[in-house]
Amino acid sequence: MEQVVVKNIHFGDGTPKICVPIVCRSDEEILKQADFIMSEARRLEEQYPEQRLDMIEFRADYYDNITNSTMLDELLEKLREVLDDRILLFTYRSEEEGGELRHDRAENMVDDIYDNVMASRLVDMVDVELLSGNYRVARTTTKAHDSGMKCVVSCHDFSITPRDDKLLEMLRNMEILGGDILKIATTPKNAFDTRRIIELTENINTHKLAAYDINKPIVMISMGTIGQPTRIARGDAGSAFTFASVGQGSAPGQFSLEEMFKEFSRKNG
After folding, report:
1. Alpha-carbon Rg of the chain, whole angstroms?
2. 4, 29, 77, 234: which sits with the fewest CB atoms below 10 Å from its CB?
3. Closest to 22 measured CA to CA, from 10, 32, 11, 33
4. pLDDT on residue 104
């Protein structure tokens, strides 16, 4: 499996990197939450020195001023200062894929928003949804690479866990379109769906599926309580990164950052 390196962090090396989302609306709330996340991370990193918070996801679909490029740039500059050396992932999640419903022009300005963010070089990675269409995905991955950034291509299914062949086709398409990290989140109906995602992740990471040889790091998540084992799987069965929460989470089934540190420390022991 090819590794992707961002700020000396290696994605795809068998150890899931930990990402915490920021899901707030105003500049003040976002910066306050970023301060709180970093304070909690430093506290836990002292307690669990072998663990680290690697990445912060800024969920821009929650941000009230997302269509104001000047305010967005100023906010990202302040976030960079607060987050120190952590990776900053920029995500605008559509309503169809679990994002916050917008009542302004944001949905019609997504391309302009991403162009501005990538031109600013104030983030390290961007996330683009596969279902936004091949043209938009390829356009975004190309622009991200031109700006020296990595790109997560993602897809979320809040109804079911699709068949393995369907999931593999999506991952292969994500890779062809230029994704550096390929992410799929699904909804399990039972424990079998969760086991299937873990087994599929392991088979991909160990190249046991010759017909779908995927070389980029992958993130495979089953959402909700039933799917929680996928969030803490490690080694060949583990994802390139996993999500934890500090305060409000961004998806069903997320562990808190403290719970994640405890679990990973237990497994290391």
Report:
1. 17
2. 77
3. 33
4. 67
